[in-house]
Amino acid sequence: MPRDDINWTPSPGTSTDQPRQVRRILRLFKPYRARLTVVGLLVGAASLVTVATPFLLKETLDVAIPQGRTGLLSLLALGMILSAVLTSIFGVLQTLISTTVGQRVMHDLRTAVYGRLQRMSLAFFTRTRTGEVQSRIANDIGGMQATVTSTATSLVSNLTSVVATIIAMIALDWRLTVVSLLLLPVFVWISRRVGNERKKIATQRQKQMAVMAATVTESLSVSGILLGRTMGRSDSLTQSFSEESEGLVDLEVRSNMAGRWRMAVISIVMAAMPAVIYWTAGIALQMGGPDVSIGTIVAFVSLQQGLFRPAVSLLSTGVQIQTSLALFARIFEYLDLPIDITERENPVHLDSIKGEVAFEAVEFHYDEKSGPILDGIDITVPAGNSLAIVGPTGAGKSTLGYLAPRLYDVTGGRVTLDGVDVRDLDFDTLARAVGVVSQETYLFHATVADNLRFAKPDATDEELYAAARAAQIHDHIAGLPDGYDTVVGERGHRFSGGEKQRLAIARTILRDPPVLILDEATSALDNRTEAAVQDAIDALSANRTTLTIAHRLSTIRSADQIVVLDSGHVAERGTHEELLELDGRYAALVRRDAQLEPTS
């Protein structure tokens, strides 16, 4: 299995500078401003209540206890208890609202990325490993969960607490406040250094996780297991996965240990600060300095500890945000990928579709660097007629067929449906108009009925049975122990190739498209199975415009028109008899096909 990750570069419209990225992250929370306002009010209230407690403590030590005022002492004690209760209630409500908002933002991100990928052209998925896509949605967005759900609230809460506490400390004694805050700028500088370091490691870690996800997706699928075991590569794949996992271990350790000693020094200094305050106050008293009461000192130390907790949390939050910026950058790269297949601003909607398909001076290439796959293709298929496309491997047959349903867009000329450029049609019309049955049939890990209803969710059981009968697969399904409730298995591996193909045909019959693309739908089947599938295809093709990309020429002799492609050009065209009489490329293909047919 390949181990190279897909290294995406942001598109020109994507800014990787940090301020712009932060603004973009903040815009994700814009729909939830009302809830966040409530969170802010709860945070402010909790901060004020928390800051009030040391002042109650000061009054207790300096007034209530020394003067023996029992009533005042009781009120102050009750105030401290009430402060703890209110702080807890505010904290629970704040956590509930902020977590809900965070999860909604996560949902919005997941949906936005998934929706964006659904709109990408087929070319994007042919050059991207499936595991890489899954990793962006699962690992990258999942890795942002703590940041999105709690960091924003933690940031506001701690910032409010720090500001309120500093104001309260100044109110108690500005000189002790200056001593307490001397080292704060150094702590901020250290935390920024740690954050940048962890951000770099986080980017490497997510890329490594994407590589692992791709390996797991490819090698632990049914097809991957079959390939690995039949090729004797199971141990080799395990070793390869072990090496990738080993690389992740190193990155995880580095991520967790990045700046750990520097942050530990900050914690030690902050823990030692009460001793510094007691020492400073004591020395000041001995040297004839201003008189500071015991209550003031205790209240100040209490505030200082209340300051250091949110201050340390703020520094840690800054580090966490720096780390999360790397994950956001990877998600924004996907959200900024240019969409090749787009719907016009005012697309054409067709209520009635006849099914005439025309290729007019069609050109196509995958990118500017590669040569043309198709060049100057002019073909018209009248409604209800059949076109067969044949030619050697790499001639552009499948690409031509995929232009009609806009799995690719032409790079020159146009493809029309009933005289309308398919690029001008709305997606709903195009999806209703064109059905595709390919050689590589895809079935979901769901029941037979669910797989069929993917084409028509509101289909009745009778409609399912009718479609299956037309595809000559109903009797086989009905004979299964669970009938239409049988789970087909991963990628349909509980069914044979011919059975899967007939299920795909039944699914397309259920959708009832007026235009049908058959992409070598029988090329991988044996003769007996091919005959059964061909009967199903004949039933499906009746009264439809059909474009058949043919591998076995015996299946397309009755086509109204046969086109021979060679190196992206139309080399020959005509009926089966006309092309045989021409004795050119098609005749040579027919002779080769006859030689490959078994004699018995």
Automatic annotation (TrEMBL):
It is a multi-pass membrane protein. The chain crosses the membrane at residues 36-57, 72-97, 152-172, 178-195, 264-285. Residues 38-323 form the ABC transmembrane type-1 domain. PROSITE patterns: ABC_TM1F, ABC_TRANSPORTER_1, ABC_TRANSPORTER_2. It is found in: Cell membrane. Its main location: membrane. The keyword Ribonucleoprotein does not apply. Pfam families: ABC_membrane, ABC_tran. InterPro entries: AAA+_ATPase, ABC1_TM_dom, ABC1_TM_sf, ABC_transporter-like_ATP-bd, ABC_transporter-like_CS, P-loop_NTPase, Type_1_exporter. SUPFAM superfamilies: ABC transporter transmembrane region, P-loop containing nucleoside triphosphate hydrolases. Keywords: ATP-binding, Membrane, Nucleotide-binding, Transmembrane, Transmembrane helix. GO terms for molecular function: ATP binding. Residues 357-592 form the ABC transporter domain. This is ABC transporter ATP-binding protein. It comes from Streptomyces hokutonensis.
